[in-house]
C-alpha cells in the first residue's frame, strides 16, 4: 500500500503529466465513493451515501443548481459505475496522449475542463428550455467525465483527423471516424434513458472542435484555465530559502511547474526545419516524430 501511495505522489510531483493526474483524480474519487457505498450500505446507512452523491452530481434544475454551483466542476470527476469510469478513462487516455504530444500538457487540462463545463451547461440549458426535457427535469442529475473526454477526443480528431488507431477486430481506423461515430451515437440517444449525458457529450464535442480551430488561427480559449493553474501552483508551491553564492554573485530560485508549458518554450521553426520534419513524416509517419518536432509542426501551422 505504501508503494502505491509513493507512486501516486511521484506522479503528482511531475509537471508534464496532466493526463495521468486527471485519470488518477477520477480513479481516487471513484474508489473513495465505492468504499463509502459498501460501508454505508452494510451499516444500513445508504441514505447518507445518496446525500454524498447528490452533493457532487450536476442537477438539471436551476433552482437546485444555485445552491450547489460547485457541481458544474465536481460532476466530471465523479463516477459510480466501474464500466463508466473504465470507458471514460480509456477514451481520455487514447486521445489525450495525442493532444499532449502535439500541444503540451496544459492544453489537455484546458480541453478537459472547458469540455466538462460546456457539457454541463448544455445539459442544464436544454433541460430548462426544451419542453421534452422540461417534463423530466425533476430529480434529473448527471455525473461522469464523458463530456470532458469527448472534448479531448474531438480536439485530437480535429488536430490530427487522419491519425489511425488499430482497433481489435476492425484494424486501422482514422480517429476522425471514431469521433464521428460516437457523436452520431450520442445524437441518436438524446431521447433515450441517458438523454442528459448524451446532450453533454455534444456540448463537450463542440468545445473540442472549436478549441483546436481557434488555436490554429491564433486564439487560445484555454488562457483562463492556465491562469487558474498558475495561481494554484503559486499558492501551494513551497518557497525554498534563497541560496546565494558570493563567489559568482548568483541567486537561485525554484520556478513554478506551470510557469511555461512544453509547447510555450518551442521557438518558431524556420523553413529548413519544417522541410526536415515533413521529410521524416513522409518516410516514417507521424508516429516517428519526437514531441518537440510535433509541437514545432503545430506552431508552424498557425502561421498564415
UniProtKB/TrEMBL annotation:
DUF6576 domain boundaries: 270-302
Superkingdom of the organism of origin: Bacteria
Family annotation (Pfam families): DUF6576 (PF20216), Rhomboid (PF01694)
Localization annotation: Membrane
Domain (Peptidase S54 rhomboid): residue spans on this chain: 69-214
Signal peptide: none
Record Gene3D superfamilies: Rhomboid-like (1.20.1540.10)
Membrane topology note: Multi-pass membrane protein
Transmembrane segments: 18-40, 72-96, 108-130, 142-161, 173-192
Keywords: Hydrolase, Membrane, Transmembrane, Transmembrane helix
Keyword set includes Membrane: yes
Protein family per UniProt: Belongs to the peptidase S54 family.
Protein name (Swiss-Prot/TrEMBL): Rhomboid family intramembrane serine protease
Amino acid at each position: 500500500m505504501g508503494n502505491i501511495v509513493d507512486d501516486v505522489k511521484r506522479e503528482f510531483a511531475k509537471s508534464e503529466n496532466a493526463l495521468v493526474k486527471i485519470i488518477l483524480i477520477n480513479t481516487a474519487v471513484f474508489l473513495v465513493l465505492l468504499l463509502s457505498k459498501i460501508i454505508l450500505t452494510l451499516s444500513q446507512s445508504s441514505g447518507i451515501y445518496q446525500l454524498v452523491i447528490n452533493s457532487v452530481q450536476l442537477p438539471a434544475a436551476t433552482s437546485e443548481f444555485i445552491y450547489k454551483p460547485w457541481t458544474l466542476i465536481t460532476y466530471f470527476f465523479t463516477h459510480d459505475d466501474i464500466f463508466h469510469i473504465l470507458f471514460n478513462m480509456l477514451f481520455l487516455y487514447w486521445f489525450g496522449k495525442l493532444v499532449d504530444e502535439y500541444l503540451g500538457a496544459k492544453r489537455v487540462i484546458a480541453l478537459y475542463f472547458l469540455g466538462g463545463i460546456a457539457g454541463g451547461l448544455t445539459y442544464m440549458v436544454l433541460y430548462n428550455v426544451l419542453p421534452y426535457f422540461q417534463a423530466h427535469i425533476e430529480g434529473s442529475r448527471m455525473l461522469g467525465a464523458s463530456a470532458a473526454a469527448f472534448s479531448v477526443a474531438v480536439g485530437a480528431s480535429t488536430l490530427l483527423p487522419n491519425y489511425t488507431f488499430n482497433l481489435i477486430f476492425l484494424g486501422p481506423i482514422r480517429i476522425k471516424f471514431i469521433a464521428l461515430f460516437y457523436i452520431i451515437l450520442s445524437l441518436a440517444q438524446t431521447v433515450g434513458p441517458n438523454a442528459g449525458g448524451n446532450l453533454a457529450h455534444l456540448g463537450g464535442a463542440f468545445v473540442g472542435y472549436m478549441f483546436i480551430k481557434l488555436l490554429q488561427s491564433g486564439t487560445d480559449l484555454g488562457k483562463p484555465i492556465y491562469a487558474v493553474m498558475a495561481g494554484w501552483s503559486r499558492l501551494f508551491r513551497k518557497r525554498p530559502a534563497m541560496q546565494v553564492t558570493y563567489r559568482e554573485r548568483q541567486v537561485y530560485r525554484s520556478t513554478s511547474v506551470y510557469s511555461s508549458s512544453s509547447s510555450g518554450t518551442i521557438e518558431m521553426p524556420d523553413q529548413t526545419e519544417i522541410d526536415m520534419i515533413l521529410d521524416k513524416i513522409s518516410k516514417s509517419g507521424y508516429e516517428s516524430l519526437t514531441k518537440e518536432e510535433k509541437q514545432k509542426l503545430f506552431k508552424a501551422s498557425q502561421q498564415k
